[in-house]
Amino acid sequence: MCTNAGFQLKMATSLDDDDTRNLLLSYHSAYMPPYSPLKTIRDITPPTTPVGAKRQLSEAKLRRQHTKRKNFRARKKAQKAARWEERCNEALRRRWRERMQKFKLHQELDIKEKEEECKKKREALATALENTAVKIRRAVMHKKLMTTSYAFRTSLKKVIPVH
Hints:
This protein is mostly helical. It is built from 4 helices and no strands. It has helices at residues 2-14, 18-31, 39-44, 50-159.
């Protein structure tokens, strides 16, 4: 409203008609208090007064602080993401190591089980061979006994005829 009144005042000064100028001045004085004639100038012109300059400086300072805060937040967010990624990678590596250790453990257990099975088979085979050898020895001894006893009996028959 003040800007409009100031513009109308300017227009009125450029007009030749005194009545129009007086009408506009009375209109302007009705809306603007008489003790502050510079208010229209302050509203029209950009702030060059110390208060306006201070306001501009404080706004610039606030903008800088805002960008600083924004950059700080972004940097912290990136650091947090990097930490999470590092933790995830570490967790993946740890899980992989655990899985490989379990796999190696299972391999070692499988190898031990196979060795035990082979040992049992060897022992069973050895006992079977030993038993077979014992049986063969017994059979040979029995045969020897049989042959010796037969020879002994036949020799006795020759000596003592049995009827």
